[in-house]
Amino acid sequence: MNKIFKKIPSSEITDEAVYYNRRKIIKMAAGVSLALAGKEILAETAGSAKKKYADIAKGAYSSDLKVTSPRFVKTYTNYYEFTTGKEAATRLAQAMIVRPWSVSIEGEVEKPGIIDLESILKKNQLQERIYRFRCVEGWSMVIPWIGFPLGEMIKQFKPTSKAKYVQFTTIYNPSVMPGQRVKTLDWPYTEGLRIDEAMHPLTILATGMYDDELPKQNGAPLRLVVPWKYGFKSIKAIVKIRFTETMPETAWQKSAPDEYGFFANVNPNVPHPRWSQSREKVLGGSLFTPKRKTEMFNGYAEQVAHLYKGMDLRKYF
Q1: Considering Cα of 150, then 154, then 159, then 161, what sign does the dihedral take?
Q2: What are the Cα distances from residue 91, in Å, to 94, 96, 188, 264?
Q3: pTM of the full predicted structure?
Q4: What are the Cα distances from residue 13, in Å, to 9, 16, 26?
Q5: Is 90 helix (H, G, I), strand (E, B) or coil?
Q6: pLDDT in tens, 64-105
Q7: How far is CA 118 from each of CA 55, 100, 218, rounded to the nearest angstrom?
Q8: Which CATH class for the 56-308 domain?
Q9: Are 296 and 268 in contact (CB under 8 A)?
Q10: What are the domain boundaries of the chain?
């Protein structure tokens, strides 16, 4: 025993008073942590009258689902233009300048041109839409977006009869977006919709969330939200909208065509090559909260299933 448990020198034994004082410090630290947590919770529920979009009315199609805490939505973000790390992307995005901002309207429209964001906001009525947001990685959130129907904006530019698709392009600024300095994707990020999908009243352009302006890491100042599709379709920081006669290539489709299709409709019956899409984890719940079954079209089948009547949704995924 003596060989195993050597006698500890008295100089290395913690003084009794120090030991009990350490316990007090730990308790105080725990108290501070609880206080900070309490302040965070109060910050989420108080002061809404000071938020920019606090008086925006809830629009049609808005869900009655329980909203995910903004603490999760604002820190767990996919923004590869900055980095592939979700929390790190949130920090890096703060360097982005989002005012002034303009969007170029191009292609098969009678009224092409460049329009600034303030003009867009003046011409389109903002409303709140609470939507389920589903990521291809297997998690979901419920987010109160502030935005306006994309279709209403499209009408203002008068697409021609050749406009069958709408392509969106995000900002390209590798000096601020370090992720664009490497070939994770073919930058700038592009996405696309069929014209009938873009005109559907569920499809919105968002400028805010949680009664306030859209945070930079969540796509400020203007992002697409298509609630029946996987999250990667909802492109952030849009600077160009182009109307085309042919189906445009998209960033993820070019990068991995066997994994990411053009349509990206939420479909529990079509697994991703590396994981199942049949169930999802709702962020913000308890560790013991079971996963929920993934709904067809993310729960919006009643509104959008007719858009794909007769299509093989396994082939056109």
Answers
A1: positive
A2: 6, 10, 21, 28
A3: 0.84
A4: 7, 9, 20
A5: helix
A6: 999 999 999 999 999 999 999 999 999 999 999 999 999 999
A7: 18, 9, 19
A8: alpha beta
A9: yes
A10: 56-308
